[in-house]
Design brief:
Length: 751
């Protein structure tokens, strides 16, 4: 360069130019690949294009070798990279290096209320996906937990859209920053397993937008989620895999999604519906998006341009995600120490102290003999639950964690206490059935096991009862019949309490359980979740007081199932089983069904969402129903002092700040929560809604200023008349607290 003085000017100019050319949003960055993508499409035959629209194997869809386009490899999440299956099914491929890290399941992650940990979790999943040569992670699973009995509550995050959305966004970014695409699932309104393949979820537009779609919207718009899995169910009449409103109008139209949509496995239903209304890849099989597409183009029913558009959407992702070379993939064990540490960090911050009467926890230094009672203390939870399971490299159970932490100075004795429910059996019966597996979920306590446990409890300084459910009870493919503790656990726990009042209960489950019998007799209760590879380590750390518990409930524990909204309103279970009276009469009288004539018409299962926005705590608060444990609840071993809150209204957000002090004797985290209510609003709102939160780490005695923001965008509502988002300005009551039922301060602002 002749004149060096011009160099910085030139550099600045180039930077400005580059910034102007760089697409602003993550979805626009995907679309920026179009010139390369279109050059490839121009070289493809119709057959090659159509081959990309359906599965190649159970977990892949085709690329085109001659053009250097690699196949797309999928892996199940959402809480660990699933064991490698045989090409055409889910049976184990029998590999040696595919043991993965088992991360805490969805509701456990959500109980951390930590965006940072959600990002780290995504990073861990992304790292292990790449080690296995996978391009697309089938997760995170981000449907709203509508029903306490939901079979996949444990996979999902929360009953609240703001919490779910914040975690979905960070999980998505974590995975994609490692060079793997997420496939957020199950889009949308897949809140029950009962009739999941056919049920029509009937939900009003405002509720759909504000509650059920929120987590998906943030993951797509802000997180740049590259692929989406359509759910099995129907929404307002149409299957999700061919739902114009969901896939074309909202996802692609309103949110600007540029990637591709995969059907849930077996969830494609027609050629024309899928092609016209937004699906890209049929998983699995080619019955609809294989030869019939080619035939439909031949007849003029479909155009090749439409196929090109679908291929373009797939190829954008294929080019954005660098394929892992075959000689690099699967050369190392999937589970990596750094990912195991992430799993442990999440587990440590997820455990919720529900109750701690008399400061029974942490365990006193004087404890010399611990009785650990309950099969959930030794049960491994990495697999089961049908699809989402992990072949974990290792799993520390609660008993192992307690034994290791106790060391030689403290005696730890174990008794199973109850039998476990075996669930459905796949394949032939085991030659050697486990005698500790009960025949029925509601079987009363086993007298022998009970007596053994009580005897042990009597001799111990403290009893740790480890109960809850298992993955045969909470599982994909079916919802629980109720939320009762199974296999006589209530009877057992009452007997244990009589034998030894120093009783700590640890609940190992993914969803809520009915604690009406257990709570009065158990002075200390922890919700311990299905907490991954290091779950037992984290549990022991909390029990022994190495760390303070800091998880908060991501969903409400109803006192009884019937109190929860969908049950209270008779929306679930589906009561529309009764056929319409006139239809029945007509069939009998006119068509001679009485004489054994026509078979009954197949019934369309429906799920009505007439509770609208009143999901979870929104219902309990608005209707004044007291839950067993409220949304956001979770105690610590220390106290936190909430200083006076200052609130102000900026141009785009309501801002709150306040000093928070850890007044206790140990380091601890607090999850602060900011709710709003809207006095005098014309639009109808729940009594209160979560709008911001933060996890704050404080050393003993430390004070920090906490700042929270509520963007105006999060205060909008979906105006059905305008068919768009709208903001009703007015008064806002800010409710700052430690849980939805523990509001410490209020302030009012106008915005
Ligand atoms: C589940 C999905 C899963 C897929 C592939 C389906 O049954 O609903 O969540 O990703 O199977 O295993």
């Amino acid at each position: 360069m002749k004149n060096p003085r011009f160099f910085p000017v030139l550099l600045a100019g180039v930077a400005v130019l580059l910034a102007a050319c760089t697409p602003k949003t993550p979805q626009a960055r995907l679309a920026a690949l179009d010139p390369k993508v279109d050059a490839l499409i121009a070289q493809m035959t119709l057959e090659e294009k159509v081959a990309m629209l359906h599965s190649k194997t159970n977990m892949s869809s085709a690329g085109i070798e001659r053009l250097g386009i690699a196949d797309v490899h999928y892996a199940d999440g959402p809480f660990g990279i699933r064991e490698e299956g045989v090409p055409n099914g889910f049976q184990s491929a029998g590999w040696q290096l595919d043991s993965a890290t088992y991360f805490p399941t969805g509701s456990a992650l959500a109980a951390t209320w930590s965006e940072e940990l959600a990002y780290a979790y995504g990073t861990g999943m992304g790292i292990e996906a790449r080690l296995r040569g996978k391009d697309v992670l089938l997760g995170p699973a981000i449907n709203i937990q509508r029903l306490p009995v939901g079979g996949r509550t444990y996979e999902y995050l929360s009953e609240d859209p703001i919490l779910s959305a914040a975690l979905s966004l960070n999980y998505t970014k974590g995975v994609q920053d490692q060079g793997t695409a997420v496939c957020i699932k199950h889009f949308a309104v897949n809140n029950q397993e009962t009739n999941r393949g056919s049920v029509d979820a009937q939900v009003d537009e405002r509720t759909l937008r504000e509650i059920y779609l929120k987590p998906f919207e943030r993951a797509v718009v802000e997180g740049g989620a590259m692929s989406v899995m359509s759910a099995y169910n129907k929404v307002n009449g149409d299957y999700c895999s061919e739902n114009e409103h969901l896939l074309n109008e909202i996802l692609r139209g309103d949110w600007g999604f540029k990637g591709f949509v995969v059907s849930d496995w077996g969830g494609t239903h027609s050629t024309m519906g899928a092609m016209l209304h937004g699906l890209n890849v049929q998983m699995t099989g080619s019955r609809y998006l294989g030869q019939p597409v080619i035939d439909s183009i031949a007849t003029g029913a479909l155009t090749e341009q439409l196929v090109d558009e679908k291929v373009r959407q797939i190829l954008r992702v294929r080019l954005a995600v660098e394929a892992v070379p075959d000689d690099v993939a699967n050369t190392k064990m999937t589970s990596q120490p750094e990912c195991q540490q992430i799993a442990r960090a999440v587990a440590e911050k997820s455990i919720v102290l529900l109750k701690n009467e008399g400061g029974l926890l942490p365990l006193s230094k004087d404890v010399k003999k611990i009785a650990v009672i309950g099969q959930n203390a030794v049960l491994k939870t990495q697999s089961g639950g049908v699809g989402a399971g992990v072949k974990a490299l290792y799993e520390i159970t609660p008993l192992m964690g307690i034994q290791r932490r106790a060391g030689d100075a403290v005696e730890v004795a174990y008794a199973p206490g109850y039998k476990n429910f075996p669930g459905r059996r796949w394949g032939p019966a085991a030659a050697d059935p486990d005698p500790l597996v009960a025949a029925a979920i509601d079987e009363p306590a086993d007298p022998e096991l009970l007596a053994e446990a009580v005897a042990l409890a009597r001799e111990a300084d403290v009893v740790i009862f480890v109960g809850g459910t298992n993955k045969s009870i909470e599982t994909e493919g079916s919802d629980r019949a109720d939320i009762d503790l199974p296999t006589g656990q209530n009877e057992l726990v009452k007997a244990l309490a009589e034998a030894n009042p120093k009783l700590v209960t640890v609940l190992i489950s993914g969803g809520p359980t009915d604690l009406r019998e257990l709570e009065p007799v158990s002075p200390a209760i922890l919700q311990g979740w299905w907490n991954g590879t290091e779950g037992g380590t984290a549990l022991a750390e909390v029990l022994f007081g190495d760390i303070a518990p800091s998880g908060k409930l991501p969903f409400t524990f109803p006192a009884k199932l019937e109190d929860s909204p969908a049950f209270a309103l008779g929306n679930f279970p589906d009561r529309s089983r009764e056929e319409d009276l006139f239809t029945r009469q007509y069939r009998n009288e006119m068509l001679g069904a009485a004489a054994g004539g026509l078979p009954a018409a197949p019934r369309q299962p429906v799920s009505q969402y007439t509770e609208g926005q009143l999901v979870g705590y929104r219902w309990f608060d608005t209707k004044g129903v007291k839950p067993m444990y409220a949304f956001g609840h979770g105690l610590s071993y220390v106290d936190f002092e909430y200083g006076t809150m200052k609130a102000s209204v900026g141009r785009k957000a309501v801002k709150v700040s306040f000093p928070l002090t850890n007044t206790g004797a140990m380091d601890a985290d607090e999850v602060v929560q900011l709710y709003v209510s809207r006095p005098g609003a014309k639009v109808e709102w729940p009594a209160k809604e979560l709008k911001a939160f933060a996890r704050v780490s404080l050393k003993s005695g430390e004070q920090k200023t906490v700042r929270l923001e509520i963007p105006f965008d999060d205060l909008r509502y979906w105006n059905v008349d305008k068919n768009g988002w709208d903001l009703e300005h007015g008064r806002l009551t800010l409710l700052l607290g430690a849980a939805s039922d523990d509001i410490r301060q209020q302030a009012e602002v106008s915005f």
